[in-house]
Amino acid sequence: MNYELFQLINNLAGTYTWLDISMILIVKYLAGCFAALLLLLLGLGIYYKDKTLLKTSIHTVVFLGIILITHSIIGFIVQEPRPFIAHTVHLLIPHAADSSFPSTHAMAMTAIALPIFATYKRLGSILLTGTIVTGFAKVFVGHHYPLDIIMGILITYLLFKISQNYISSIIDKMLHHPKYNIFRLLVNIKQCVQLIKKSKTPVTNQFNIRG
Questions:
Q1: What is the Cα–Cα distance from 102 to 38, expressed in whole angstroms?
Q2: What residues does the Phosphatidic acid phosphatase type 2/haloperoxidase domain cover (predicted)?
């Protein structure tokens, strides 16, 4: 059933040029857009001193790290050949012949989408939709079986539900603890950078550094 569904999707490749190009662009760039968005949200949380946004961003970064480690462990244990290794497929983008299960894109993008969805429903919904579309595209270009995508999303979801409250409570403590207040530290770093930029005296002269 897994291979039959793969064939059904992958055989669409080559039918329409615009569809091939769209799927290739999605596979190549959408995950990078997710990462850029995460960095943007983190930066905005610091700049506007928005604790909710900062907490969500830090939670996402931490959870993404957990998922990437989990993916590496599963990929090491489960050596599933990619479709283009085991079968003749429409391979639109070259790819390393590593383990196919589970999908890195599916797990990483879901790991970014879920913590954001937990706080910002509209943005999170867009990200989850983008994750599903990317999963479809990865099958379309011949990189993954559908089960690689489905299980990647499912594993990430289960780990999120298990770890959500624990990670959230740790971040809350770190953001509010007077000694280990990350939010205050980040804001202080930002203020220091602004003071240096506003200063009319070159930094080298402030510290009497001579060439």
A1: 23
A2: 56-164
DSSP letter, residue 143: S
DSSP labels, 26-69: HHHHHHHHHHHHHHHHHHHHHHTT-HHHHHHHHHHHHHHHHHHH
d(CA 122, CA 105): 21
CA atoms of 116 and 112, how far apart (whole Å): 7
| Angular region, 126: left φ>0, alpha ψ -120 to 50, beta rest | alpha
Q: Confirm if 76 and 69 have CB atoms less than 8 A apart.
A: no
pLDDT digits (tens, 9 = 90+) for 192-211: 666 666 665 555 555 555 54
Name every residue whose Cβ is closer than 8 Å to that of residue 162 and which is 6 or more positions away in sequence.
Answer: none
Are 78 and 101 within 8 A, CB to CB? Answer: yes
pLDDT tens digit string along 36-94?
A: 999 999 999 888 888 889 889 999 999 999 999 999 999 889 888 899 888 889 999 99
pTM above 0.90, yes or no: no
Crossing angle of helices 121-140 and 17-47, rounded to 10°: 150
Q: Which of 69, 97, 34 is nearest to 155 (CA)?
A: 69
Contact 103, 135 (CB under 8 A): yes
Q: Where along the chain do its domains lie?
A: 1-173
pLDDT in tens, 89-111: 999 999 888 888 999 999 999 99
